[in-house]
Amino acid sequence: MNVTIYDVAREANVSMATVSRVVNGNPNVKPATRKKVLGTIETLGYRPNAVARGLASKRTTTVGAIIPDISSIFFSELARGIEDIATMYKYNMILSNSDQNPDKELTLFNSMLEKQVDGIVFMGGKISEELLQQFEKSPVPIVIAATVQGTGDIPTVAIDYEQAAYEATNLLVSHNHQHPAFVAGETEIETNNEKYKGYLRAVTEHNVEVKQEYIVKSTNTYDAGLKAAQQLAELSDRPSAVFVSSDEMALGVIHGFQDIGLNVPEDIEVVGYDNTRLATMVRPTLSTVVQPTYDIGAVAMRLLTKLMNKEEVTDKNVTLPHRIIERNSTK
């Protein structure tokens, strides 16, 4: 049977209130009594009931994190940033994968509330209207990370996706590629749609008529990148540069061109997006937009701790800086 606070109190010959004060770090306990209670706890193997303590204090020191896919390098780095700061502030974390399924996102959100979490960090592709309404009525603070929301009412931590894509496209234009191609993940996902807008802004600013055949929309995967490269290579007027909306997809694009005998960057230059570990694993190494993935998770969690503890927050919508790092996939 589980050892209870009553068992500890009886064995140490103190009141249950004294045991509770020791467990919760209350200083109003004599050193000798504290030592005796802690020794009894260790001997009996007592573990405080976190759920019961949470019900009593109305806090569980537990936060929820809902992410699309923990197997993704991008989201795993982001989740690590959340977890490290949660640990620093002594919060436990419940991590769930939503698969970017709107129904599952709603289910997970309600499940987190049922588990009495103190706050939630959410990452997703497109926030449904129903989920956004649930966020606005939430009894606990919500912070959205690496995700674009339309209203701006929910605290958010991200980068300027449109501006970063604009700068990445302009980098290729500055290399004398008047009209780079664009390989995009699903543009119904708001972050990808922002990247698409940035790409279009850069191209049209140079008085170039947009070639729709230069825009390939697919899933945000390595295999989709392979197919996109083959599709672009078959064009009679093949592009000389490609901007890709994620590093994983950019690896597929590079390998797809290499598979048919094209050299990167001699025959075609490639720029990715995110600066995950994959960018330095591919050959040639990938020029890419540096999105501070770990920092987004860490700052989102720190913002959540402030909201949970009702600390003053001057800016609930945080835009972190980005930059572009040039490696060997561009000249």
Low-confidence stretches: none
How is the biggest beta sheet arranged? 6 strands, parallel
Biggest β-sheet: strands ordered side by side in the sheet: 2-1-3-4-5-11
Give the integer mean of the pLDDT values: 91
Radius of gyration: 25 Å
Order of helices and strands: HHHHEHEHEHEEHEHEHEHEHEHEE
Per DSSP E runs of 2 or more residues, the count of β-strands stands at 12
Based on CA inertia axes, which overall geometry fits? elongated
Number of helices: 13
SS class: alpha/beta
Oligomer: single chain
Percent helix, as a range, is: 40-55%
Summary keywords:
single chain; 331 residues; alpha/beta; six-stranded parallel β-sheet; 13 helices; 12 strands; elongated
Can you describe what's shown?
The chain is an alpha/beta fold. The chain contains 13 helices and twelve strands. The chain has helices spanning 5-12, 16-23, 31-44, 50-57, 73-88, 102-114, 129-136, 161-174, 190-204, 222-233, 247-259, 278-281, 293-308, and strands spanning 62-67, 92-97, 119-122, 142-145, 156-158, 181-184, 215-217, 241-244, 269-274, 287-290, 317-319, 323-325. It has a six-stranded parallel beta sheet with strand order 2-1-3-4-5-11, with helices on both faces. Strands 7-6-8-9-10-12 form a six-stranded mixed beta sheet, with helices on both faces. The longest helix has 16 residues, at 73-88.
